[in-house]
Amino acid sequence: MRGAALVLLTASLLLAGPACAQAASAPALKAQVLLKALRFIEWPQAALAGRSGLQLCLLVEGELAQQLSGLEGQRINQLPLQVRQVRNQQLAGCHLALVGPDGPWQAGGATLLVTDAPGLLDRGAMLSLQTEEGRVVFDIELDAARRAGLEISARLLRLARFVKKSG
Amino acid sequence: MKPLARCGAPWLLLLAVAAAQAQTDDDGLEALLQREVEGPSRYAQSLLDAPAAVAVFSRQEAELLGHQRVAEMLARLPGVHLGHTRQYVTVGLRGLNRPGDYNARMLVAIDGFRSNDALYDQALPDTEFPLAAEWVKRLELVYGPSSSVYGGNALLGVVNLVTVDGADAPGLRAKTSLGRFGSRRALLQYGQADAGGGDLFLGLQWRKSRGETLELPELVLPPGQLRGLDGLEQRSLFAKYRLGAWRATVSALQRDKELATAPYGTLPGVPGTRYRDRFWHAELAYEEDWSQALRRSLRLGTAGSGFDGHYVYEGGLINRDVARSRWHNLDARLQWRGWLNHELLLGLEARSVPQGLQRNFDLNPAAEYLNSREHSHSLGLYLQDQWRLSPHWQLTSGLRADRIRSFGTRASPRLALVYRPRPGEALKLMLGTAFRAPNLAERFYDDGGISQQANPGLAPERLRTGELAWERELDARSAFSLGLFDTRLHRGIEPQPTAIEGVSRYENAGHFHSRGLQLGLQQRLRGEPQWRVDLALLQAHHLGQRLSNAPRWLLKGHWIQPLAPLWSLALEAQGQGARRAGPGGQDVGAQWLAHAALRYSGWPGQHWLLRIDNLADARHFDPAGPENPALQRVPQPRRSLRLDWELRF
Tell me, what's the ipTM? Predict the structure, then answer.
């Protein structure tokens, strides 16, 4: 399954031009790319223990948030995605969160901070989805993800436009 | 990009990654597709990330403008100045268009296959080229030296022609054209993409023209004496079949040209002085998709070229010039993404020319002046690294080492720093060098004192360029570009006069310096006016003197206006500054040229197009080069009207 997902993600990122993509908007495609990318991210056992699903928290509104809401129930490595709105930047219990420029975010735990606002990798965001010449590309802040206890597969890293990593 | 991957599978359709502009119509997306190029790095990449300034011209634009030849597409791009010797078209770029060499400092590739021949190391884009404009999906002009990935002769630029797949032009199409000067053309093509993943494209082309009746006062002939002496006949074919990672391609051309300009001292005003050119190539390529961090490709190619010159001299003497070359190519490449933020390309290219034959002889009475059979081999190893320093910065560095028989090893480095301040914008700084080994014709051609002496001791010439480019997409449909360049060519191979009048010899005597500015603005959305304006300001010098045949400015543009739903009108215009002539030639003033095309697609499966070349019937000239010693200037094509009828089944 993971291999197939990688093929799909690779194809999405590398091969699929925009020629046939008119049916889907950029936020919809970002949501699809994120969904595939999540299969290559591992959360610590403690963060998943006793949880019935993968918590996706939305701190911002907008088209991408709407698209992500539509992913409710999708399974990521056997766990269904559970989407909820969050206020006050409180991210306790969130496995991943869509964040915007308004921070700081009080993550603390193993929360993958996802954004489509530019320039947030320097402020703690871990996965940044952007568009570039008709393609969705993503950047990864690897150190921040590791500090949060997240393991990101090397195969996913290879597909990133840019991986920020010290040392 | 493989058609199946692009459009074939529903899951890809669902997942296909789009820009914010994805919500606009198909045509906007189609325009955006032009932002991917394969020429600069020999793999597909974003135009804005590419380590070179690139201009792209698409089939859609060519179709609406009524282009039939690759040269017409190339002429639309900034910095290009084509000429016509009435034997061949000559290609100038950024002020360098040297007399006697038609396109010797540019590399032309068909889907990445080097199509420069093995004797003259050149490929000419007009009727000398096997591909019709209809078979070119995208013409990419990569400015500046690209020897770091292509090896020798990628000096001023590389033209990469990305050919159409069957899926791009499905079904059978027949096109006929009739025009002034007795010109006729028939084109037949067939495209098919089958469900099993196979993709076939076949194209055939035939063209014949009586040609103009030239007025050449220097030849002192009665009026009309040159009637019928400028004829042309061209036949060509192109075929491509893809299946999965495999691709096989074949092209072939034969071109016959009657010569009216009394080249090389031949008898003026009589028929029989003519050229025949041939070219063919076949290539088998295996290009796999990414698997893990690796992507492999292997290409095997073989090609041949032929030239037959038939010259009629005083007293019924016939002189023949015969040249034949064969060459084989092997190109193996590995792309690797094993290191984070790096994309590495490692390539090995071998080229063998088992025989380059050049003969020159007289018939009646028989006499042989030249019978040269030379061979040449080269091996190139290249490495390129595209390193993302941050989401906004990337550094591309490349180095290629070429070992060439008789010339030792040459290294060609490249460095390009690209800054992407925001999506759709790039600032690039590029430094690179390139080389060209003297070709077999420059080294060994010797026609017994008629035009050229051999010089086997020639050394390679070397070019160095620094370039700045700023490219910006203003919105989903328009883009702006600005470029500054500084190019120096050292030990340039140039024909030099000898003690015998009219006879030259190639020497490493050129030290050219060309610098300039290119400015471009374009809008590329189908269904709306599409237009493009380009300005190039150029300064080309040789040892402090202004270079001959080098315009100081070029201004060109086109406008494609949809009229009613089924009509479109296209206008193209170009101007170039005055040019100084070389020895024996006559200077020419600034020139303006305009063409127009009216297209109607009203009847099912049919397209009609009326094209007028040289709308104002302007009388333009090129300074005469050494091939036309009897002339001071060469008249350029006059107004011609042509009607095309295309049937699609």
Answer: 0.78
